[in-house]
Amino acid sequence: MTQKFPVHIIGGGLAGSEAAWQLGEAGVPVVIHEMRPVRGTDAHHTDRLAELVCSNSFRSDDETANAVGVLHGEMRRAGSLIMQSADAHMLPAGGALAVDRHGFSGAVTAAIEAHPLITLEREEIVDLDRPGWENVIVATGPLTSDALAGVIKSKTGEDDLAFFDAIAPIVHADSIDESIAWRQSRYDKPGPGGTGADYLNCPMDEAQYEAFIDALLEGEKTEFKDWEANTPYFDGCLPIEVMAERGRDTLRFGPLKPVGLANPNRGGERPHAVVQLRQDNALGTLWNMVGFQTKLRHGEQTRIFRMIPGLENAQFARLGGLHRNTFLNSPRLLDHQMRLKPAPHVRFAGQITGVEGYVESAACGLMAGRFAAAQYLGRELDAPPVTTAHGALLAHITGGHLSVASGDGGARSFQPMNINFGLLPPMDPPARDADGNRIKGKAKTLAKKNLMARRALADFEAWAGAWSNVRTAAE
Prior knowledge:
By secondary structure, the protein is an alpha+beta fold. It has two domains: 7-165 and 325-428 and 453-474, FAD/NAD(P)-binding domain (3-Layer(bba) Sandwich), CATH 3.50.50.60; 169-319, Beta Barrel (Elongation Factor Tu (Ef-tu), domain 3). It contains twelve helices and 17 strands. It is globular, with a radius of gyration of 23 Å.
């Protein structure tokens, strides 16, 4: 071994705890630095590790047809502490994995404190360049302290962190009705790397537009928490319903303006208003609703946005939101080992990388922990295949996301994302079932998900086998 010092992890949330567990189980000494209770946050209430601050649900546990369930399955196959603790403290919740939040965080804390190779230190960290800190993982989540955020900014550039997260919904491409929507850029301009047909355009006539505005104004909104209420919006990121409140034609002269667009399905006429969607990932399976950042409640978003022609049957990979957050411009800043390009001794894990959700954060911690362990042991460990849920998440935050403009490393419009099948390379099921009946509709969608889930779990098991070879270096 060439490494003499332990790996240091900043943050004892789900990502930090999982990273520490993976390191310790590989025989690598690790120190977790958790600032609670020395310094609290606006959201946490205890000093326990992996505290669940807003929900006790890990969402779907179906590893045969749900991308979150596939992520669960992969993590279980990797000996995840987070999944072991969740399974030990699960509550009845139908097809979801819900947990007793206090029992869960207590179990994670006890396991970390009992591990012979893991040291837990309660202190706030405001420096990433201490002597001996040659292998560091930052897993401080969306509520990173101002002091540490300043240190991160100094290493990445002032504009590489976002502190207020205004996100627009993402739609699965195969749920958009392209007999209504058409592909065209405004004035057919190709732009850098474009073709002149880079947007999907959903047309509205006057009656449809007016009904849509009414729905936006009347829709139920999410209220800000006290510590979020005074955080200003980013320029150009006003919620769509706030724009509508400023005048009924505001949207028609803003993100829904129809200029430079001609509907080929209506003889080339210009619609009264147009909702544009922009390709969001390299696979072309996900499309972003341009300008649709919102604080509408999720149920309202689904109802109201399906009023848009062409999106009547839209399936959402992510719904919009507006809340305080801290995350990196990861596609530009992180390599495929989750290392910070300007300071490669530092890795990032969890929500600060631009993933959403407890499970996704823990999965990032799992990968960061294994990459850091391989580095400590002087071994090579490739990233998980993009056909796995872990690999798809990693590929998205380190390069799979498409930018609004070229030349910025692919990340100017980067926003947090949950795991979903749209991040994985697609697969087509057979046209007919074993009885010769044509597979179509929901059955076809389910068959497609089944195929992708089986492939993901098989490919992840192969990656886990490569990890076993790395771990032998510690024995």
